[in-house]
Amino acid sequence: MTFHGRSLIGFSHGSESTGTFQAMNPATGQALDGTFHTASAAEVRRAAELAREAAAVLAGTSPSERAAFLRAVADELESARPDIVARMPLETALPEGRANGELGRTIGQLRMFADLVEEGSWVDARLESAQPDRAPVPKPDLRYMRIALGPVAVFGASNFPLAFSVAGGDTASAFAAGCPVVAVSHFAHPGISEIVGSAIQRAVKASGLPEGTFSLLQGTGEDVGIPLVDHPAIKAVGFTGSRFGGLAIAERAAARKEPIPVFAEMSSINPIVIRPHALKTRRDPLVAGLAGSVSLGVGQFCTNPGLVLLPAGEDAEAFIQDFAAAMDDSKGGTALHAGITKAYNEATQARASHANVETLASTANDTGSNRVNPWVFRTTAAALLADESLTGEAFGPSTTIVTYDGDAELTRVIASLEGQLTMTIQADPADHPMDAGVVRAMQERCGRLIVNGFPTGVEVCSAMVHGGPFPATTDARSTSVGTAAIERFSRPFCFQDVPQDLLPEALRDGNPLGIWRLVDGERTKEA
Amino acid sequence: MTFHGRSLIGFSHGSESTGTFQAMNPATGQALDGTFHTASAAEVRRAAELAREAAAVLAGTSPSERAAFLRAVADELESARPDIVARMPLETALPEGRANGELGRTIGQLRMFADLVEEGSWVDARLESAQPDRAPVPKPDLRYMRIALGPVAVFGASNFPLAFSVAGGDTASAFAAGCPVVAVSHFAHPGISEIVGSAIQRAVKASGLPEGTFSLLQGTGEDVGIPLVDHPAIKAVGFTGSRFGGLAIAERAAARKEPIPVFAEMSSINPIVIRPHALKTRRDPLVAGLAGSVSLGVGQFCTNPGLVLLPAGEDAEAFIQDFAAAMDDSKGGTALHAGITKAYNEATQARASHANVETLASTANDTGSNRVNPWVFRTTAAALLADESLTGEAFGPSTTIVTYDGDAELTRVIASLEGQLTMTIQADPADHPMDAGVVRAMQERCGRLIVNGFPTGVEVCSAMVHGGPFPATTDARSTSVGTAAIERFSRPFCFQDVPQDLLPEALRDGNPLGIWRLVDGERTKEA
Question: pTM value?
Answer without folding.
Answer: 0.97
